[in-house]
Write a structure and sequence with these properties.
- This protein is an alpha+beta fold and about 300 residues long.
- The protein has three domains: about 20-130, Nucleoside Triphosphate Pyrophosphohydrolase; about 135-160, no CATH class; about 165-295, Nucleoside Triphosphate Pyrophosphohydrolase, CATH 3.90.79.
- It is about 20% helix and about 30% strand.
- The strands form three sheets. Strands 1, 2, 3, 4, 5 and 6 form a six-stranded mixed sheet that branches. Strands 10, 11, 12, 13, 14 and 15 form a six-stranded mixed sheet that branches.
- Strand 4 and strand 5 (about 85-90) form a beta hairpin.
């Protein structure tokens, strides 16, 4: 039995949803769905989602008719699931009891994969909207259009659309050893794959080579794309790679990375004896490591 965690399509991918983009501009149809008790709405408080924490955590989907004044809250149309419209909406208060607003990653591995994808999708849209309430060209207040998937400025006519930042993430190996590192941004004890954002004019492969060289000072070849994962924390798309090291000594950039080391398969295979903690199993980083450990590369 394979020991690979989080195989493609990775967690937080909304693969079961019909995004029904042709419906986004149909204001009348969306208004009807917001009065349909069969529709489902995910209440949010900032970037947190409402969850039922009694027993196994689950998203607390509600009917739009149960949320007072939902139309004025600028609901975000997510799409259709089995013909049923799904929305996300930011509300102004918090619930008590076994319902509470929680971070998506805190329940991502316990809710269904469908709900994990929808929650991540909603979080990405809410984060983008919060950063684009005013026009980037003239500064005037924007208003939602296309079911919340765009914002329009009546002052200069500029339309703004949700932003996704592409980033590469790569496991560098040399036979039975791989490089894992850590930055000051991740929790203590965790060592992960190397990663960084693409720059204008770069291919994905060029970004892999540049980021690895910048962080640990080695050159790579045999760069192989593996898979991708939406990572809306806050707004990234992780492009996963495996690559081979052309030489072994590491030269760390302290501005980029806190520590990095070579680890053998033998060191990392046994969770009881491995010298470091690996990334959480909801991440593509963990998938890339597990894939290498399992010998599937």
């Amino acid at each position: 039995m394979s020991s690979i965690n989080n195989p493609p399509p990775h967690l937080y991918t909304s693969s079961e949803l019909d995004r029904a983009s042709h419906r986004r501009r149909e204001a009348g149809w969306i208004a009807e769905r917001l009065h349909d008790p069969a529709s489902r709405v995910l209440p949010m408080f900032g970037l947190k989602v409402l969850a039922d924490l009694e027993g196994d955590p689950a998203l607390a989907w509600q009917a739009p008719t149960d949320i007072d004044g939902i139309g004025a809250m600028e609901p975000l149309f997510l799409g259709l699931q089995d013909g049923i419209a799904h929305f996300a909406v930011e509300v102004g208060g918090r619930d008590d009891g076994h319902l509470d607003y929680v971070e998506v990653r805190s329940i991502g591995r316990t809710v269904t994969r469908r709900d994990a994808g929808l929650a991540a999708y909603a979080r990405a849209l809410v984060h983008w909207r919060a950063k684009h309430l005013h026009c980037g060209a003239c500064g005037k207040r924007t208003r939602p259009i296309d079911g919340g998937h765009a914002r329009h400025c009546d002052g200069c006519g500029l339309d703004s659309f949700p932003r996704t930042d592409p980033a590469v993430i790569v496991l560098v190996s040399d036979g039975d050893r791989c490089v894992l590192g850590r930055s000051a941004r991740i929790p203590a004890g965790i060592y992960s794959t190397l990663a960084g954002f693409m720059e204008p004019g770069e291919s994905m492969e060029q970004t892999v080579a540049r980021e690895v060289f910048e962080e640990v000072g080695i050159e790579v070849d045999n760069i192989r794309y593996r898979s991708s994962q939406p990572w809306p924390f806050p707004q990234s798309l992780m492009l996963g790679f495996q690559a081979s090291a052309r030489h072994q000594p590491l030269r760390l950039d302290p501005e980029e990375i806190e520590d990095a080391r070579w680890f053998t398969r033998e060191e990392l295979l046994d969770p009881e004896t491995r010298p470091v903690q690996l990334p959480n199993t909801d991440s593509i980083a963990r998938y890339l490591i597990d894939e290498w450990l399992d010998g599937d590369v």
